[in-house]
Amino acid sequence: MSSNPLKITDTILRDAHQSLLATRMSTGSMLPIVEKLEAVGYFSLETWGGATFDSAMRFLKEDPWERLRILHQRLPNTPQQMLLRGQNILGYKHYPDDIVEKFVELSVKNGMHVFRVFDALNDTRNMAWAMKCVKKYGGHVQGTLCYTISPVHDIPSFVALAKELKELGSDSICIKDMAALCTPYVAYDLVKQVKAEVGLPVQFHTHNTSGFGLATLMKAAEAGVDIVDTAISSLAGGTSQPPTESLVATFQNTERDTGLDLNLLNEIAQYFRGIRTDHLAQFESGLDTADIRVLLFQIPGGMLSNLVSQLRQQGAENRYEDVLKELPRVREDMGFPPLVTPSSQIVGTQAVVNVLTGERYKIISKEVKDYCKGLYGRPPAPVNPELIKKAIGDEERITVRPADLLKPGFEAAKEEIGNLAESEEDVISYALFPREAREFFELRRAGKAAPIEQPRIFPAVKPAGEAASQTVTTAIAPTRPTRPQPNYSLWKLANRVQNRR
Q1: Under a CB-based contact definition with an 8 Å cutoff, are residues 345 and 329 in contact?
Q2: How large a percentage of the chain has pLDDT more than 90?
Q3: Residue 493 pLDDT > 70
Q4: What is the predicted pLDDT for the residue at 471?
Q5: DSSP code of 11?
Q6: Residue 455 has what pLDDT?
Q7: How many CA atoms lie within 13 A of 200 on its CB side?
Q8: Which of 85, 323, 335, 480 has the fewest Cβ atoms within 10 angstroms?
């Protein structure tokens, strides 16, 4: 028996299929294997958050709250874990405090245990209320720092952030390396210092996009990390997490032996291999190998893959290298935000338009203007004054927490959706995603919602009309299905510019 076993969170029910299969795994596809997942002995299973909530209603025609409840029943001894975007909850904008609180309250009530709370700008003002609510309703608060590389991001700054997250009530700290930028030896140093100076359990999350995910987790384990994120091998690698079985085998008969059963894990891997091949093949991301460009440009791999298809649709594929060069420049102008939802979309879209127009910031989206005004929070470094001038002129920038400017929203949402909502959970679904929720509630009332325990088997060819059902307006449309993205008006503007040329 290991004296210091490394604990594992498996992302198979959330980030793994979000990264590789456009978040299309249905609840019915999960349930036949849940008993074996329960038997593994994971620290937790990531089952919710990110894009799973709106994808459930939008594409799978099922209730995300019902997924949470059923999994809670079938996983009596394995905590469920979710990714919560702080004041953004699961969306792409800030929501009022009463919506955040009610969401957390209902999430705990329906079976959520561990809340990984983060903010795209690492602005703790945008995390504090959500963390307080998780604490209030009895959940585990995992304060999260988004790891990135820039002249203003270094190990001391991340350690200082972790200390602040502890003061806000974190039960544990997560190092979230969403773009696979944290190299193994940097991971060692970062974990070592956070463990030494903060004194809370530390969990490490990375992706395998750059090819060294497993090595990064190994060095993090050597430095004393308590928990790591992995994905069962049949949905691991590429832009997903490193494989669970490989990590388990690596630490067998060592001080960090996980104690997990490789034979059981292999059975689980075989099941999900079948789900991937038989149910979800049309949603494959196509990113099967390491992509070192994430290190050269500090850009998440999924963002890079989309650039090629987006530019190809515009007949501007020859501008790809120009966009790659422009992305870091835009990021620098905007104060080096970590590239994670929604900042990655804001920066990426502006870079594309800058290139297509042939003039930097000739056209600036509402989102960039709001960012410059301070409505997304406090950037890691000062925004370029010239960009601020172009974006908002002499308009006053806000310095308060953005959510302080928002009126309570629950009662208004309840009144708007009326009797289509059958519960408080429905009201929250509507408050977060009005169009998707209304469409789902109408289907449910008509008896056309998908049976929650029935696996969704998608045909080999993408169904006609699915693209039209997406809320994102991508004038530069991807050639493969992608997870839902915010409706940034800059895509429309880019299309108009390209059509004029």
Answers
A1: no
A2: 73
A3: no
A4: 28
A5: -
A6: 85
A7: 24
A8: 480
Q: Taking the alpha carbons of 205, 111, 19, 94 in that order, is the dihedral positive or negative?
A: negative
Amino acid at 249: A
Check the CA dihedral 112-249-233-293 and report its sign: positive
pLDDT of residue 445: 96
Task: Identify the helix (H) or strand (E) that includes residue 116.
Answer: strand 114-117
CA distance 158 to 194: 8
Residue type, 497: V
pTM attached to this predicted model: 0.89
Identify which of 162, 99, 172, 164 has the alpha carbon closest to the alpha carbon of residue 139: 172
Beta partners for 81? 46, 114
User: For 131-151, what is each residue's pLDDT tens digit?
Assistant: 999 999 999 999 999 999 999
Choose among 367, 347, 242, 334: nearest CA to 300.
347
Handedness of CA 108, 207, 284, 356 (dihedral sign): positive
Rounded mean pLDDT, 446-471: 64
- 146 vs 80, 175, 179, 353, 488, CA distance in Å? 21, 6, 9, 26, 23
**φ, ψ for residue 137, nearest 5 deg:** -100, 10
Return the bridge partners of 10, or none: 45, 230
130: number of Cβ within 10 Å: 27
What's the CA gap between 500 and 365, in Å, rounded?
Answer: 18
DSSP-assigned letter for residue 125: G
Strand partners, 227: 7, 203
User: Over the stretch 227-269, which tens digit does the pLDDT of each residue have?
Assistant: 999 999 999 998 899 999 999 999 999 999 999 999 999 999 9
**Based on C-alpha coordinates, what's the Rg of the chain?**
22
Residue that has been written with the tokens 């937790």 in this structure? 44
